C-alpha cells in the first residue's frame, strides 16, 4: 500500500503527567479533566505510520473540552493532511477507545478541528451518527484495524 | 567328496540364516561373525561369495535381496585389504548390475554401492561404472527417503575420495547430480544436500548447466518451513535457510541469477523473504564478481532504503543496515569514477530527509552513519557532504529538542570517523572540528535540555576534542562542578568530567583540580561529589581520598559535609577494596572518626545529628567488614572507650556509633565491656524508635554471634525474665518487638531455644496484634544480621521458618482470631519467592480469607503485591486458583479506605488477562468487564488509570487484530 503522507512532521511527546500529592490522597476527589482524556487517546497509533496520534499532533490537549457537571466531553482532532482518507478511521478509533475507557455517564463528541479537512462535515456527521458507528463496529475488517490502532502495547 | 563338502558348508551357511529376519539382531551378529572369520583368515571373501552364490542369483527377488543383505553387511564391515582389486572389480560389476534389478533389491544395492565407494582400492573405471548405473537406472526421487539419502551419500563420498575420476566424467556427473536432487522435499535430505552442495559447487565449473543447477536450488528460496512441535530431528527454518543461502552463494557462476532473485524476493511483503534475501545479498559479496553488484547497485540501494525508511521492525532494519554496509564496502573496491557517483546518488537522496522534525530524519541519519562505516572513502565523502549541512541546520533550528537530535547524530559521525581511521585526532577534518565547537556551544546554552544534551555529546567524543576546545571546557568545569545545577545537567556534566579525566588526566589535574577554589559549604559538597566520580582512576585515588580525609578532620560544619560525601563514596564503590584499604589502613579513618565524635560529644546529639551519626556508622561498617581479626582487635579498645563514654553521658546518639563498630566485628573478637544490659535498657526506654530498633538489632547481632554457649544461656534467661515483667504493662509493644529480634537471632543460628521463643510469640499473637509484626522482623533479610557482618546464618533458615509457621497458622486459624490473618500478611511480605510458590496450595485458603476479611490496607497491599508478582510471571499455581483470586481482586477493586489497594487489585486483574489459557479466561470476561466499568468512575484518577488498563486488556482478550 502506498503511503499518502510519506514524511510527516513529528512532534515531541509531552512528559508524563506528574502525580500531585493530592492525587495520592484517598480522601480527595479528582475530577476528570482534559489532560486525563488526552492521556487516554494520545497513545492511539496512526493507521499509516508506526507513530502515535500525539507525535503527529492529530490530537492535542488544548483541543479537548470536558464538562464534568453536564457529563459531556468534546474532542477535536486534526488530520495530518487535508485530504487524509484515514480521517474517519482515526475519528472512529478515538471514539471506540473513549467508549471503552470512560464511565458511561459521559456523552462524547469526536469532531474534526474546523478547517483542517476537505470533507470535514461529512466525517463529523458520520462520527456523530450512533447507528453508523455501531454498524461500522460490526464490520470485522474495520474493527480489526481499529483494535490495532488502540491496542496498548504491553511493555 | 570335496564338492560335496562345499555343498555342505554352503547349505550350512544358508541354513544358519534360515528363517532369520534381516532386521534381527541375530542377523547382524552372524554377519559380523562372517567378517571376523575373513579378517582372521579362517575363511576368505571368495569362499563367502561361493557360499552365497545360490542366494545371490536366486530367481526370487526376496531371496536375492536376502543374499545381498548379507554381502552388503559384510562389505560395510570388512577391513579393506581383505578384498583384492580384481575381486572388487567383479563385485562392483555385480552391484552395478543389481542397481538395474528388481525394485526390492535396489535399496540394498545402493547401500552396497555406498560401501564400495569407500574402498580406496576400488578401480577407477568402476567409480564411473557405478555412478553411471545410478544415473541411468535409478530415478532418485521415486526412492524412499532413506535410499535417497544413500544416493546423496554416494555422491558425497565419491566427491571426497574420487575427485579426479569425477572431473573426468565432466558434465555427466554434474547432470546426474542435478537430476537426482531435483524435487527433493524431505527436510533431513535437504539439510544434508545444502551442507554438501557448496563443496560440490566449488569444485566443478557448471558451465551451461549453471542456470539449471541454480533453478533446482532457487525453488526452495525463501525457505518456508515450520517445525512440528516435538520434532525429533530438531531441524528448524533458520538452519535450512542459512545453509541454502550458503549454496546459492557458493559459486560466482550464480551471480547473474542470484541477485535478481534476491531483489525480487526482497520486495515481497513476507518478512522471512526479506531476511533471507538480505542474507544472500550480503553473503554474495564474498564471491560474486563486483560488476554484478555495480549493475544492481541502484536496485539494492533503493530496496534497502525502503526497508529502513518505512519500517516498524527493528530487527529487519538492523539486518538491512548491516547488509547495506557489506554491499557498500564491496562497491568501494571500484575505482573512484564508478564508486563516487553511487555514493553521491545515495547522499543526494537522503539529504532531502534531514529535517529534524520529520519522521524520516532518524532513519536517514542511520543510513548515512552506516554508509560511513562501509569504507574510508565513503566516510570522508559523506562527512564532507552531510556534516556542514547538518551544522547549518543546527544553527537555524530554534527548538532545543531538535538541536539535541542533530547534535547526537553529528557526534555519531565523529565516532564512526575515528573508528574507521583508527585515530582519535580529527583536526584534519574541518566539518568534524566544527562539531566539537557545537558541543561546546550547546553545553554553555541557557536551555537546560540543550546544555545537558551538549554535555552528553561531549562525553562521547572527549578523545577527539582539540586542545583549545578542551581548555574552554576546563575553564568552565572549574565553576560548573561546584555550582548548583539540576540533576538533568549535573549528570552529563559529571560524565564529561569523568571522560575527560580518563582521556586527559594530567590536564584535568592541572587545569581543573588545581584551579578550583571553594568558598562555601554548598560548593564543597558538590566538589567532593564530583571528585567521587573519578576516584576509581588509579592516578587520582590517593589524592582524592586524602582530600576527603582532610575535610573530615576539619571544623565541625565542614566535617559534616566531608563525612556525608565520604559515606556516599564508600557506598558507591562498595566493591572496591583498594579504596577501603587505603582509608582503613593507611589513613586510619575509623579511629580518627571516633576521636572526632568523642571530641565533639558536647555538640553532637540525637536527633539533630542523626545523619552524621548514621554516616559514621555506615563508614565504620564498610571498612570493618573487610578487616582482619587482628586489626579489629586493635579497634576494640576504641569501642570500649565509646561504650564507657556512653555509660557516663547517656548520649543515645552514641548507640548508633556503637552499632557501626560492634555489629561488624568478627565472632572471635571480644569486647572488654558487656553491653547486653545497656542495649536492653535502650531498647526498652529510648523514646526514639530509630535508636530502639538499632539497639534491638545490635542485641540480636551479639546474641547471634556469641560463641560462649553458657553465657548465651544466661543472657537468654535474664532477658526472658526482664521481658516477662513488661508483658503486662504499657511497654508490651516494645517487649514484643525486642523478643522478636531475639527469636530471629536464635532462629538464624539454628539454636534449640529458637523454637521456645517462637512458641511464645505465637501465644502472644492470640491476644496482641503487635505480635503479628514480629513475624515480619523474623522473615526480613536484615543487613545488620547478615554473613557480611559475620553473623551465624543457617542455610535456608527463612524458608524453613516460613514452611513451619504458615502450616501452623493455617491449622490453628479460627474465625475469632483476626490476628492470624495479619500475621500471614506480615510473613508473606518478606517470604522468599520460591518457597511461597511451593507452599502456595497449602496456604491459599488463609490468603484468600485475608483478602476477604482483613480491613488493614497495609496488609492487603502487601498480600496483593506478592500475588501480583506471581501472576505477572504466570506461575502455574495462580492458574489453578484463577477464579477465586480474580473474584477477590474484583471485590478489592472497590476497597474504600485505600486507593493503593484498589490500584494493586486492578493491576492483578490486568495481568490475569495475558498469558493464561483463553478457555479459562473467556467465561469470566463479560463479568470482569462489567465490574470494571464501576472503577472507571472512581474518585481517584490513578485508580481510574489502572481500571482503564485492566479493562482494555480484558476487552482485547479475544478481540480481532
Automatic annotation (TrEMBL), chain A:
GO terms for cellular component: cytosolic [4Fe-4S] assembly targeting complex. Pfam families: FeS_assembly_P. Keywords: Chromosome partition. GO terms for biological process: chromosome segregation; protein maturation. InterPro entries: FSCA_dom_sf, MIP18, MIP18-like. It comes from the Eukaryota. Residues 36-111 form the MIP18 family-like domain. Belongs to the MIP18 family. This is MIP18 family-like domain-containing protein. It comes from Pyrocoelia pectoralis.
Automatic annotation (TrEMBL), chain B:
Keywords: Cytoplasm, Cytoskeleton, DNA damage, DNA repair, Nucleus, Repeat. One of its GO terms (biological process) is iron-sulfur cluster assembly. Coiled coil: none annotated. SUPFAM superfamilies: ARM repeat. One of its GO terms (cellular component) is cytosolic [4Fe-4S] assembly targeting complex. The keyword DNA repair applies. The keyword Cytoplasm applies. Key component of the cytosolic iron-sulfur protein assembly (CIA) complex, a multiprotein complex that mediates the incorporation of iron-sulfur cluster into apoproteins specifically involved in DNA metabolism and genomic integrity. In the CIA complex, MMS19 acts as an adapter between early-acting CIA components and a subset of cellular target iron-sulfur proteins. Component of the CIA complex. This is MMS19 nucleotide excision repair protein.
Amino acid at each position: 500500500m502506498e503511503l499518502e503522507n510519506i514524511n510527516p512532521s513529528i512532534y515531541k511527546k509531552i512528559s508524563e503527567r506528574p502525580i500531585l500529592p493530592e492525587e495520592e490522597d484517598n480522601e480527595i476527589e479528582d475530577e476528570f479533566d482534559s489532560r486525563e482524556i488526552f492521556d487516554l487517546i494520545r497513545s492511539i497509533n496512526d493507521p499509516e505510520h508506526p507513530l502515535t496520534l500525539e507525535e503527529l499532533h492529530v490530537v492535542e490537549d488544548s483541543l479537548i473540552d470536558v464538562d464534568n457537571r453536564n457529563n459531556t466531553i468534546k474532542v477535536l482532532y486534526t488530520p495530518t493532511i487535508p485530504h487524509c482518507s484515514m480521517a474517519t478511521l482515526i475519528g472512529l478509533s478515538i471514539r471506540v477507545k473513549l467508549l471503552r475507557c470512560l464511565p458511561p455517564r459521559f456523552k462524547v463528541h469526536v469532531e474534526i478541528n474546523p478547517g483542517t479537512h476537505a470533507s470535514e462535515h461529512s466525517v463529523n456527521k458520520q462520527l456523530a451518527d450512533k447507528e453508523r458507528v455501531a454498524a461500522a463496529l460490526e464490520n470485522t475488517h474495520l474493527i480489526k484495524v481499529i483494535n490495532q490502532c488502540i491496542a496498548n502495547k504491553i511493555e | 567328496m570335496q564338492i560335496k563338502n562345499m555343498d555342505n558348508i554352503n547349505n550350512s551357511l544358508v541354513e544358519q540364516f534360515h528363517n532369520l529376519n534381516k532386521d534381527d539382531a541375530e542377523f547382524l551378529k552372524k554377519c559380523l561373525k562372517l567378517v571376523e572369520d575373513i579378517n582372521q583368515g579362517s575363511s576368505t571373501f571368495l569362499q563367502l561369495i561361493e557360499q552365497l552364490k545360490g542366494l545371490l542369483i536366486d530367481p526370487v527377488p526376496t531371496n536375492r535381496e536376502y543374499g545381498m543383505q548379507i554381502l552388503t553387511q559384510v562389505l560395510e564391515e570388512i577391513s579393506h585389504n581383505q578384498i583384492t582389486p580384481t575381486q572388487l572389480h567383479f563385485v562392483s560389476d555385480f552391484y552395478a548390475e543389481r542397481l538395474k534389478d528388481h525394485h526390492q533389491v535396489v535399496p540394498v544395492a545402493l547401500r552396497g554401492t555406498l560401501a564400495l565407494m569407500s574402498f580406496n582400492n576400488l578401480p577407477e573405471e568402476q567409480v564411473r561404472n557405478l555412478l553411471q548405473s545410478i544415473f541411468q537406472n535409478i530415478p532418485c526421487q521415486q526412492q524412499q527417503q532413506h535410499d535417497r539419502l544413500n544416493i546423496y551419500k554416494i555422491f558425497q563420498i565419491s566427491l571426497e575420495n574420487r575427485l579426479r575420476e569425477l572431473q573426468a566424467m565432466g558434465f555427466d556427473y554434474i547432470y546426474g547430480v542435478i537430476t537426482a536432487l531435483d524435487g527433493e522435499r524431505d527436510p533431513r535430505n535437504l539439510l544434508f544436500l545444502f551442507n554438501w552442495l557448496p563443496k560440490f559447487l566449488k569444485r566443478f565449473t557448471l558451465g551451461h548447466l549453471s542456470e539449471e543447477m541454480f533453478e533446482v536450488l532457487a525453488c526452495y528460496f525463501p525457505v518456508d518451513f515450520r517445525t512440528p512441535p516435538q520434532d525429533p530431528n530438531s531441524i528448524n527454518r533458520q538452519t535450512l535457510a542459512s545453509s541454502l543461502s550458503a549454496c546459492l552463494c557458493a559459486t560466482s557462476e550464480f551471480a547473474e541469477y542470484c541477485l535478481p532473485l534476491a531483489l525480487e524476493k526482497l520486495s515481497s511483503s513476507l518478512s522471512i523473504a526479506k531476511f533471507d534475501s538480505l542474507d544472500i545479498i550480503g553473503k554474495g559479496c564474498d564471491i560474486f564478481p563486483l560488476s554484478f553488484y555495480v549493475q544492481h547497485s541502484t536496485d539494492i540501494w533503493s530496496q534497502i532504503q525502503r526497508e529502513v525508511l518505512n519500517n516498524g521492525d527493528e530487527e529487519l532494519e538492523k539486518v538491512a543496515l548491516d547488509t547495506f554496509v557489506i554491499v557498500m564496502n564491496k562497491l568501494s573496491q571500484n575505482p573512484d569514477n564508478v564508486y563516487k557517483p553511487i555514493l553521491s546518488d545515495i547522499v543526494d537522496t537522503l539529504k532531502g530527509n534531514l529535517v529534524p522534525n520529520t519522521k524520516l530524519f532518524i532513519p536517514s541519519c542511520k543510513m548515512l552513519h552506516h554508509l560511513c562505516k562501509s569504507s574510508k572513502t565513503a566516510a570522508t565523502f559523506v562527512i564532507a557532504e552531510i556534516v556542514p549541512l547538518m551544522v547549518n541546520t543546527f544553527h537555524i533550528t530554534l527548538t532545543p529538542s531538535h538541536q539535541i537530535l542533530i547534535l547526537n547524530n553529528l557526534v555519531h559521525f565523529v565516532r564512526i570517523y575515528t573508528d574507521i581511521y583508527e585515530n582519535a585526532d580529527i583536526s584534519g577534518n574541518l566539518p568534524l572540528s566544527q562539531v566539537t565547537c557545537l558541543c561546546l556551544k550547546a553545553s554553555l546554552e541557557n536551555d537546560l535540555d540543550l546544555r545537558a544534551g551538549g554535555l552528553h555529546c561531549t562525553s562521547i567524543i572527549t578523545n577527539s576534542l582539540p586542545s583549545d576546545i578542551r581548555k574552554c571546557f576546563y575553564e568552565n568545569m572549574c565553576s560548573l562542578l561546584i555550582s548548583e545545577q539540576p540533576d538533568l545537567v549535573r549528570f552529563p556534566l559529571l560524565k564529561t568530567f569523568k571522560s575527560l579525566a580518563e582521556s586527559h588526566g594530567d590536564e584535568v589535574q592541572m587545569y581543573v583540580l588545581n584551579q578550583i577554589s571553594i568558598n562555601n559549604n554548598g560548593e564543597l559538597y558538590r566538589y567532593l561529589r564530583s571528585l567521587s566520580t573519578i576516584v576509581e582512576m588509579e592516578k587520582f585515588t590517593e589524592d582524592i581520598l586524602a582530600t576527603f580525609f582532610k575535610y573530615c578532620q576539619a571544623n565541625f560544619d565542614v566535617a559534616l559535609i566531608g563525612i556525608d560525601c565520604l559515606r556516599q563514596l564508600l557506598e558507591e564503590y562498595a566493591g572496591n577494596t583498594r579504596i577501603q584499604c587505603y582509608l582503613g589502613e593507611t589513613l586510619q579513618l575509623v579511629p580518627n572518626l571516633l576521636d572526632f565524635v568523642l571530641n565533639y560529644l558536647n555538640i553532637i546529639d540525637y536527633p539533630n545529628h542523626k545523619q552524621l551519626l548514621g554516616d559514621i556508622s555506615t563508614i565504620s561498617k564498610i571498612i570493618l567488614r573487610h578487616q582482619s581479626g587482628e586489626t579489629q582487635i586493635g579497634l576494640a579498645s576504641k569501642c570500649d572507650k565509646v561504650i564507657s563514654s556512653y555509660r557516663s553521658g547517656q548520649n543515645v546518639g552514641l548507640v548508633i556509633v556503637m552499632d557501626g563498630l560492634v555489629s561488624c566485628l568478627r565472632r572471635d573478637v571480644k569486647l572488654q565491656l558487656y553491653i547486653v544490659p545497656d542495649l536492653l535498657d535502650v531498647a526498652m526506654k529510648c523514646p526514639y524508635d530509630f535508636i530502639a530498633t538499632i539497639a534491638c538489632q545490635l542485641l540480636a547481632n551479639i546474641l547471634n554471634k556469641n560463641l560462649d554457649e553458657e553465657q548465651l544461656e544466661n543472657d537468654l534467661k535474664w532477658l526472658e525474665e526482664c521481658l516477662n515483667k513488661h508483658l503486662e504493662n504499657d511497654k508490651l509493644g516494645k517487649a514484643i518487638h525486642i523478643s522478636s529480634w531475639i527469636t530471629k537471632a536464635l532462629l538464624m543460628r539454628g539454636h534449640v531455644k529458637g523454637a521456645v521463643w517462637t512458641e511464645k510469640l505465637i501465644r502472644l499473637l492470640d491476644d496482641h496484634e503487635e505480635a503479628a509484626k514480629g513475624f515480619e522482623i523474623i522473615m526480613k533479610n536484615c543487613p545488620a544480621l547478615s554473613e557480611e557482618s559475620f553473623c551465624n546464618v543457617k542455610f535456608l533458615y527463612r524458608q524453613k521458618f516460613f514452611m513451619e509457621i504458615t502450616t501452623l497458622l493455617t491449622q490453628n486459624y479460627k474465625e475469632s482470631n483476626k490476628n492470624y490473618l495479619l500475621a500471614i500478611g506480615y510473613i508473606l511480605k518478606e517470604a522468599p519467592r520460591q518457597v511461597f510458590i511451593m507452599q502456595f496450595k497449602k496456604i491459599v485458603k488463609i490468603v484468600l480469607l485475608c483478602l476477604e476479611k482483613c480491613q488493614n490496607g497495609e496488609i492487603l497491599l502487601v498480600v496483593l503485591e506478592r500475588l501480583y508478582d506471581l501472576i505477572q510471571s504466570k506461575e502455574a499455581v495462580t492458574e489453578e486458583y484463577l477464579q477465586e483470586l480474580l473474584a477477590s481482586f474484583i471485590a478489592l477493586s472497590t476497597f474504600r479506605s485505600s486507593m493503593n489497594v484498589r490500584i494493586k487489585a486492578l493491576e492483578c486483574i490486568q495481568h490475569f488477562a495475558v498469558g493464561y489459557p483463553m478457555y479459562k479466561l473467556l467465561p469470566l470476561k463479560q463479568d470482569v468487564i462489567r465490574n470494571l466499568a464501576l472503577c472507571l468512575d472512581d474518585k481517584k484518577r490513578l485508580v481510574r488509570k489502572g481500571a482503564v488498563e485492566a479493562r482494555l486488556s480484558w476487552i482485547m482478550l479475544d478481540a480481532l487484530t
